[in-house]
Specification:
The complex is a heterodimer of chains A (461) and B (370).
Chain A (H helix, E strand, L loop, with lengths): L6 E4 L3 H12 L4 E4 L16 E3 L15 H12 L5 H20 L18 E3 L4 H14 L3 E3 L2 E9 L2 E9 L2 E5 L3 E4 L8 H8 L7 E2 L8 H8 L4 E2 L5 E7 L20 E3 L14 H4 L2 H7 L5 E7 L14 E3 L2 H7 L4 H14 L35 E13 L2 E2 L6 E4 L2 E8 L17 H21 L1
Parallel strand pairs in A: 1-2, 1-9, 2-5, 9-19, 10-16
Antiparallel strand pairs in A: 3-4, 6-7, 7-8, 11-17, 12-16, 13-14, 14-16, 15-16, 18-19
Helix pairs in contact in A: 1-4, 1-11, 3-11, 9-10
Chain B lengths: L2 H17 L8 H6 L6 H10 L5 H4 L13 H16 L12 H22 L14 H29 L7 H13 L11 E2 L6 E2 L1 H28 L12 H26 L10 H23 L6 H18 L6 H16 L5 H11 L3
Antiparallel strand pairs in B: 1-2
Helix pairs in contact in B: 1-5, 3-5, 3-13, 6-11, 6-12, 7-12, 7-13, 8-13, 9-10, 10-11, 11-12
Classes of the chains: A alpha/beta (461), B mainly alpha (370).
The complex binds flavin-adenine dinucleotide (FAD) and iron/sulfur cluster (SF4) (2 copies).
Chain lengths: 461, 370
């Protein structure tokens, strides 16, 4: 781009691309500054699999209907009411028109498998996953003349009263700046900056794994908050789950998820149990185990199962550790063998009648007289070989973010910043106070990305 | 089979099985997700279900530089190539696969020379058209075995393949499913109808599917033309040359044109596509094979155009030489893929029949996962 672009979009994930495409279609000249190199473009969005979408009748790959009220009720349940109802309903209502828009802009969905009933009712699955979505958007954006700079890390936004006057970034080792008319921030949360996590969580956070991109380090977020841009949420709030302890530090994504907890006992490094493994079906408990494990010594847990449970859950990326005796397993997993034996013996003794065991329903097969109890799927661990996985806390994204209004606009003091909008993870805290609803991250990014793009273009033109 | 290829394919298949994002691109993934552990036979079958469209590569969040280093199209291409070698019959000919580029070229030259010498030395006293250069009986004497022996070799190879992948008794219904799927090149639509990622990174296009269809139908038309000619010769006593409004010509001319367009297109796409997403060692042989088919189509058309001129004297052996080497090398060149693919699709049709009840429960689980 010879002269300054009309709009700079900071970030290269779903929210950024939705904003860039919308703005370019409105006639604006758009520059995307993406800190990642091309193979890693697309932030956390490249790891996603689906989009939660309201619909009043069959829509694209979605069957039946999913009303605003039901969607909102689902959101209230997971957030315990900690949501901004106005923005949440805006996101939910707009999601319906997003789906056809996504298809028009190259996104392809998995056809709903014939004969499976409510599977594809609430969430539309991307064919090929989030990276294929991101690829399609980059193609579309290129066709609209959007310029993309990879390895362009934004370091600072110069704020003059209620106007952003300059965007500073580094590219190919040199410091550069642009002065666009409008700026859209879509650079995600700060979870990849473990020092920041540690400031909020204490040193335990150093042991957390980051499930998504290493590039969301909150640099722009911190820069804006320091300059008094309106903030929402607090730094301890995040989506965190328990994942395979052998996962890479960053970018392990979906395959490191473990689904075996309900059929197991989970112990800490002293081989002691610490929570009811059978409290509820796994999709409902998946997210709390991130915090449970974070509270254990060294932030690590160990899942122990026996041969009869091995095939009851989805396989994960790493094979389990295997041994013919519990003591052997303990040794391989560096757990104290006698303590593990004692814990398992005590658990086994507390198990009762297991004839009602049912892997996919709350079966009420529970322990008696054990603390903590296991209230479902409690079967003694007796059948060799024994298998184990280590568990660590995996952070998906943080909620501390930029506060926006229904036009996705940021504010300073009590007035809007005239040319600054935010979309996606970096403002998701405006809607999600806590908890998380699968597929809602992409909804927030798509809805507010499009709003931000439209507003930014209207201001620039 | 080279054990490292299988182990690498197994490693990648296990990652895909924990991910499942690519379900829907092609029939590899539903087949893959049915298993928890992958035997060598399973991997061989998956490899032969893959048609190297690369959709799953460009969509994958785990490709290099990521440490998981996924490249499913490439490893499946390696396993596929190895599996053809493993099942080649006679065994000693397996290595031909790796050299089929050079081989096709030599075969072409030798075939031409042979035909030329035969035509010169055994030139018939009389005969019209082509038969003025080479008697019909001589052609049959050369081509009947050159056609039937490779077919026998392929049949034996396929029987071995069927055992490796654990196929049971063959059902006609499954064969029909496979034929329908291959006839429409259903899998080459990419699951969403936009086609393959091939010549331009992650851009979907129908080019490969359409060119490949041109080759397939062009080839079948040419084959039909030859068969029609043979039948007319033996059953109806009608001797070549045939006029334009005869079955051999009505099938052969469009067939030849389609074959030329299709092969030229595929060769061009091949030069554009990233070689590291296929089996690098097989590239040359595949290219040579495509060009050989192009040459057969072109020389056939030219030969027809040259009817009545003296050029037939050298065009005919050239064309027949090419056809001869094509036939002989069928079991040991890229041509084998058509047969293995049919076998793989038939096998897939036979196992995908019963509704996977357990898979449904797992799917419902997955829907609620981030
Ligand atoms: C494993 C995993 C699975 C998930 N699955 C789902 C799902 O199925 N459905 C769902 O709705 N949500 C899912 N999520 C959450 C979802 O990823 C996010 O809500 C969503 O992708 C956020 O989009 P975004 O555009 O705001 O951020 P991102 O996609 O993370 O994009 C942020 C971009 O900003 C860039 N950036 C960061 N800092 C700078 C800087 N200083 N300068 C320039 N660029 C910068 C990054 O490189 C990146 O490109 C998942 C998350 C993970 C980790
Ligand atoms: S190729 Fe990659 S994205 Fe596709 S299923 Fe396998 S691991 Fe997942
Ligand atoms: S390359 Fe294409 S055909 Fe092969 S596994 Fe991937 S998506 Fe399927």
């Amino acid at each position: 781009m010879q002269s300054d672009p009309d709009i700079v979009v900071i970030g290269g994930g779903n929210a950024a691309l939705c904003a860039a495409i919308t703005a370019a279609e409105a006639g604006a000249r758009v520059l995307i500054l993406e800190t990642a190199p091309k193979p890693y473009r697309g932030g956390n969005s490249r790891h996603t699999r689906n989009f939660r979408c309201m619909h009043s009748g069959p829509l694209g790959p979605l069957v039946e209907s999913y009303s605003e009220e039901e969607y909102f009720a689902d959101l209230m349940k997971v957030t315990d009411g900690k949501t901004d109802e106005h923005l949440a309903r805006l996101a939910i209502r707009s999601s319906e028109e997003c789906l056809p828009w996504m298809e028009e802009h190259g996104v392809r969905f998995q056809p709903s498998l014939s004969g499976t009933l409510s599977l594809a009712r609430t969430n539309a699955f991307f064919l090929g996953g989030g990276k294929s979505l991101v690829n399609a958007y980059y193609r579309t954006a290129a066709g609209l003349g959007v310029e993309v700079l990879y390895e362009a890390a934004v370091t600072h936004l110069e704020l003059d009263g209620d106007l952003v006057t300059r965007v500073d970034y580094t590219h190919e080792g040199a410091a550069k700046s642009v002065a666009p008319k409008s700026v859209v921030v879509a650079s995600g949360g700060f979870q990849a900056d473990t020092d920041w996590l540690a400031r909020a969580w204490g040193p335990a956070a150093k042991n957390f794994l980051i499930r998504g991109t290493p590039y969301n380090r909150g640099i722009v977020l911190a820069d804006l908050l320091e300059q008094g841009i309106g903030q929402v949420g607090d730094p301890t709030q995040c989506h965190a789950v328990a994942i395979d302890g052998r996962a890479p530090k960053f970018d392990g994504g979906i395959v490191t998820r473990l689904d075996c907890v309900p059929f197991s006992i989970v112990v800490n490094k002293d081989a002691e149990r610490f929570y009811d493994e059978g409290e509820d079906v796994w999709p409902k408990r998946y997210a709390i185990w991130g915090r449970l494990v974070a509270a254990q010594p060294d932030q690590v847990g160990y899942v122990i199962i026996d041969a009869k449970s091995l095939e009851l859950f989805m396989p994960s990326v790493f094979p389990p550790i295997k041994a013919d005796t519990l003591e052997g397993l303990a040794e391989k997993m560096e757990l104290p063998p006698e303590s593990l034996r004692a814990t398992v013996d005590e658990f086994n003794a507390a198990c009762g009648d297991t004839s009602g065991f049912h892997p996919t329903e709350l079966d009420g097969v529970s322990t008696t007289g054990l603390t903590p109890p296991k209230t479902n799927w409690a079967r003694p661990i007796t059948e060799p070989p024994f298998y184990g996985y280590s568990l660590r806390t995996g952070v998906t994204f943080t909620y501390l973010g930029l506060k926006v209004d229904e036009t996705a606009q940021c504010s300073v003091g009590d007035r809007p910043v005239r040319n600054l909008w935010a979309a996606g993870e970096t403002m998701a805290g405006s809607i999600l106070g806590q908890g998380y609803l699968a597929g809602f991250g992409m909804t927030i990014g798509t809805v507010f990305g499009r709003i931000a793009g439209k507003e930014a273009a209207a201001h620039a033109n | 089979m080279q054990i490292d290829f299988l182990n690498e394919a197994r490693r990648q298949a296990e990652i895909c099985n924990a991910c499942r994002y690519c379900e829907g691109y092609c029939s590899v993934f539903p087949a893959l997700h049915r298993e928890r552990a992958f035997s060598d036979g399973d991997l061989t079958q998956l490899a032969n279900l893959c048609h190297n469209c690369r959709g799953c590569y460009y969509a994958c969040q785990y490709t290099a530089p990521h440490e998981f280093d996924l490249n499913l199209p490439k490893i499946l291409a390696e396993v596929r190539q190895e599996s053809w070698k493993d099942h080649a019959w006679p065994r000693g000919f397996a290595e031909l696969f790796d050299r089929s580029g050079v081989l096709l070229a030599t075969g072409l030259v030798l075939g031409f020379a042979l035909m030329f010498v035969l035509a010169q030395t055994l030139r018939p006293e009389s005969g019209a058209g082509f038969y003025a250069y080479m008697s019909h009986n001589l052609m049959v004497a050369v081509f009947a075995p050159a056609f039937l022996l490779p077919l026998l070799a392929i049949a034996i190879s396929l029987r071995g393949y069927w055992r490796t992948v654990g196929g049971g008794s063959l059902r006609l219904g499954d064969l029909w499913e496979a034929t329908k799927s291959a006839g429409r090149m259903k899998n080459l639509t990419g699951g969403h109808g936009d086609g393959c990622n091939f010549e331009d990174e992650d851009r979907f296009s129908q080019a490969r599917r359409h060119f490949h269809q041109a080759v397939l139908y062009g080839f079948l038309l040419c084959f039909g033309a030859t068969s029609a000619g043979t039948l007319m010769h033996y059953l109806l006593g009608m001797e070549a040359p045939y006029g334009f409004f005869s079955l051999p010509k009505l099938l052969g001319v469009p067939g030849g044109i389609l074959l030329c367009i299709g092969t030229a297109g595929l060769a061009w796409l091949k030069t554009k596509a990233d070689r590291n997403l296929g089996a690098p060692k097989a590239w040359g042989g595949e290219m040579a094979f495509v060009l050989l088919l192009f040459f057969i189509g072109l020389s056939g058309l030219v030969l027809y155009a040259a009817t009545g001129t003296t050029a037939v004297g050298w065009l005919l052996p050239l064309h027949l030489g090419a056809v001869l080497s094509f036939f002989l090398l069928t079991p040991y060149s890229k041509m084998a893929h058509g047969f293995y693919r049919m076998a793989a699709l038939t096998r897939e049709a036979s196992v995908s029949r019963p509704a996977p009840v357990q898979a449904l429960a797992a799917d419902t689980e997955r829907a609620n996962r981030t």
